[in-house]
Amino acid sequence: MKKELLLGFCPIGKFVFSHEDALRYKRILEGKLAEWNVDFVGIDEAVTDGIVRSQKDVGPVVDHLRSRKVDALFIPHCNFGTEGAAGVIARDLGVPTLLWGPRDEAPQADGTRLRDTLCGLFATSKVLHKLDVPFSYIENCRVEDQAFKTGVDRFLRAANVVKTLKRLRIGQIGQRIDFFWTTIVNESELLERFGVEVQPFDMVEVIEAILSEARTNRGTIVDEIEAAKSHMIFEGFDSIDPIVNIYAARNVLLRLAESEDLDVLAVQSFMSIIKALDCQVEYSTAMVTDMGIPVACETDIHGAVSAAMLNAASKGQDPIAFADLTVRHPENDNAVLVWHGAFPESLKHPDVQPKVGTHWIQGVPPGAPHWEMKRGPLTVFRFDGDRGVYTAIGGEGKAIDGPKTQNTYVWMEVADWPEWERKFIYGPYIHHVAACYGNYSDVMREACRFIPGLDYEELP
Question: Among candidates 243, 271, 257, which has minimal Cα distance to 369?
C-alpha cells in the first residue's frame, strides 16, 4: 500500500454550550484515534483550543488542513456544532467527510445540559445537504460503543478507496486481446472523469526485459525455484528454463510497478508473451499480486480499476483474486464457481498441494497455478461502464465445498444467486470480478458516495 491515509480531525463546538465538556471529548477522541493507529492531524495550530466555534474559524482551518494535504475529514460535534462553519469547511476541502457526535448524557441535577450533540448533528447535516457535500454518518452513540469503532473503520477504508481512485495508475502490458470485445474501454474518459491514468508498455520491450532478467539473474532465480520445490510441484516443463522465465517475469513486473509508481497491472495474458517465453505467466502474476500489486488478466482495464479499489478497501490485508464468475454449482442453486488462473498462493486452502502446470483448456506451455482457495467470507466487486455511464456492483458470500476443478478456484455461496446472475447479465458488467476475503461491500457502497458519476449496486 502507498502512503497511509491522512485524516483531518476537526472538532466542532458552539459558544452556547460547555466549552470545557467539548474539550474533554476532543481529548477522548484524540486518544481513540491514536489507540486505533489512525494517522491524523488536528487544528490546534489554526484555532483556539483546536475546536471550531464560529464562522470566523473557517479560513484558518481550511488553510491549515489543506496545507497538510488531508485525504479525509472527521468533524465530531463535541457539544453542539457550528453548522455553517462545519459545512463550509467540508465543502472547501472537498474530501470525504465523516459526521458524528457523542451520545448526550442525562441532564444535570438542575435540569441543564452540557451538550445537545444530536440536535447539532441534525443542523449540520442540513447544511451539508444545502451545500451539496456528500458525507458519511455514524449513529449518535457513545465513544465506547462498537458502532463508533466500526463506523470510523468503514469510513477510513472508504476514504482510502476514494484516494486510490483519484490518483490510480494502471500499468498496461500489451494491448487488448483482439477478440475480447468485453474489455473495450474509453481510456480518455477514465482519465477525465475519475483521474485514472493508464500507462502502456510495449509488449516486445517487456518480453526483452524478461529474457534479459532470466539471463542476468539466472543463478539467483534457480536457487529460489529449488527452494520452492519443497512445497510446490512444477509439472509439465521440459526443462527449468521456462520456470526461470516465470520468475523473471515476476521480477520485471514488480520493477515496473515500483519505477512507474503503479497501483495495479493489466496484463495481456496470451498469446505473444506465452510464445516468446515458452511458458504461461499466470504464476508470475499470482506472485506479483501476492506481493501487493494486484494484476488483472487479459488487459481488462476496468477489471484493474476494480482490483485496485477493492484492494484499497481491504488495505491489503489479503491479496486480491482476479476472478471469473464461471459456472453454477451442480447442486447448490445459490453457489457459483469463482475461478481463474492466477489466484495468489497465500489464499490457497491449507490442505491443498500447490502445483504449477498446464492450463486445462489451452494447448499452450505450462505456467498456470492449480489450487483451491481457503474458506471464509468473500467480497466481490466490479467497476464497469458503457456509453458514458459508470456503475459499480458488489456483494458478499462465503467460500464453500464443491466439486474439484483445475486452475485456481473456490465455490462461493450467496444469498440469492439468480438475482446476482440477472444483475451481471443486464450489465453493464462482464464476468471478471475482483474478489477479496473479508466483508467490504458496505465500504465500497460508502466509497461510491464520494465518487461523482459512479453509482453503486448492492448484490443480495
Answer: 243
